[in-house]
Structure formats: C-alpha cells, structure tokens
Amino acid sequence: MTPPWRTVVLSPHFDDAALSVAALVRRLPRPLTVVTVFGGPPPEGSPVSRWDATCGFSSAAEAYACRRAEDARACALLEAEQTLLPNPDGPYGATGPLRGLDALLAGLTADTTVLVPLGTNQPDHERVRHQALAALDRPDAARTLVYADLPYTGHLPEWATDGASDALAASQKWGLAYQELTRHHPCSVAHDVRLDDEQWAAKRAAVLCHASQLAPLAADHGSLAARSGPLRAELAWTLDARPGPGA
After folding, report:
1. DSSP one-letter code for 27
2. Cis peptide before 151 (omega within 30 of 0)
3. What is the pTM of this model?
4. Cα-flanking dihedrals φ and ψ of residue 41, to 5°?
C-alpha cells in the first residue's frame, strides 16, 4: 500500500524537525509525517549514554520513552504524523545502512516532497543525507528538498540574510556539508523563512516540547531559544537537475 503522505520530513533525531523546520512544515502539503530515522529503542540493558545522562536520565530506556513522548507532543503541534524507524540513537546503534529508510523512500510517489537534513557538523545527520539522496536518485523519485539543520547551520554569521547560501559556499567552519552537497547536486533556494513573531511563538512551542534536550543544547549552542538566536530562520534548497549530454 502506498503511504498517504504528501510531505515527508526526515528528522535524524527526535528534536530535529522542530528545531529546523517547524515554521516551514506549516507551508507544505498535507498529510505530512515526521520520520525520526534514529527512532528505535536502545538495546535492552544499554548503559545510559553521556548525552542522555547530561539530559538528566538515569537509564537508556527512560531516555527513549521520554524523548518519544516529547516528539509525539511536538508532532501534534506541527499537525504531523509521527513515524519512527527502528534505528537506535547514535550512542546505542551500529554502523551500516540505516534500517527502514530505503524501503520508506522507495514507497513514495513523485508527487511527494521529502525534506532531507543537510548535515552541518553533525555526523548522524550527514549519514541520513547520504543514504536518503542515494535512495532518491531515480527518475520517478519524490521531489527532494535539503534543509539547513539547526542550530548548527544557524551559527553562520550571515544566517537569516540573503547571502546565507553564498556564505555557506565559502565557510570552512559551517559550510563543509553544503559544499559537499553542491559538488554533487546543484541547488537553488526553495524556501527562505525568516520567522515573524507569530511563527516564532508557534515554533518555540514545538521546540519546548523537547524540554529534556534544551539544557545540553544551550550549553553547546548558546542562546538557543533567543528570538535572535540560530533558530530564527529556516532554509531549504531544491536539487537542480544536471544538464544531460549535449545540453
């Protein structure tokens, strides 16, 4: 059976869709699902990871149950279905292909739009991008957008300006993933959302659903929830077709 979605957001972890595209998804066709790629439970008996311990959890199982529930609340605010793939989060997982991703993308039709993370300075996000773009590299594939993952890309000094893409193309600190992407896939800006106060309030509500993650994220990324911080704009690119032989 063909999945009913018109829009599919690939969120590597439980909080990435809210952080990166909470405003953009409200513009995109429904039905819409947020697919958490690292959405599976940790192996039974796994010791708590350093990240989850920093978030205040005593066990890996507790962290998973809480984060899954947080994501369900955020998806409800985003008016999105929650879809989970069976891959455990990075510290609990294994190398190799991400389970469930190729099959999910193969079942989509050409009138579906898939949002794929750029992977700025985040290996799990980059891993999702590489596998997703390979799976979508076929003539009848869904339309693909690559979105700037936040807060990472949002630290670019030119973020939320008309020059953001050009700055990523030149930045050796924040632009390496974008530069790798554009070497293989010419891109054009498809959506450049600079949030007004109403959009910001709605996004903030979705982000705050992921409360367990905010303290360590703020420690790593500074004024994460500030109105003027890295979440204040959202950016997505469409992959341009390369000209064929003789074109």
Report:
1. G
2. yes
3. 0.95
4. -70, 155
- What pLDDT was estimated at residue 4? 85
Would you identify the CATH topology of the domain 7-239? Rossmann fold (3.40.50)
Residue extents of the structural domains in the chain: 7-239
C-alpha dihedral, 102 to 121 to 22 to 183, nearest 10°: -60
Nearest-angstrom CA–CA distance, 109 and 117 = 20
For 33-65, how does the pLDDT look when each residue is reduced to its tens digit (9 = 90+)?
Answer: 999 999 999 999 999 999 999 999 999 999 999
pLDDT in tens, 197-227: 999 999 999 999 999 999 999 999 999 999 9
Beta strand segments in 66-216, E:
81-84, 113-117, 143-147, 187-194
Sorted by sequence, the CB contacts under 8 Å of residue 206 that are 6+ apart come out as 18, 22, 74, 77, 78
How many C-beta atoms surround the C-beta of residue 81 within 10 A? 17
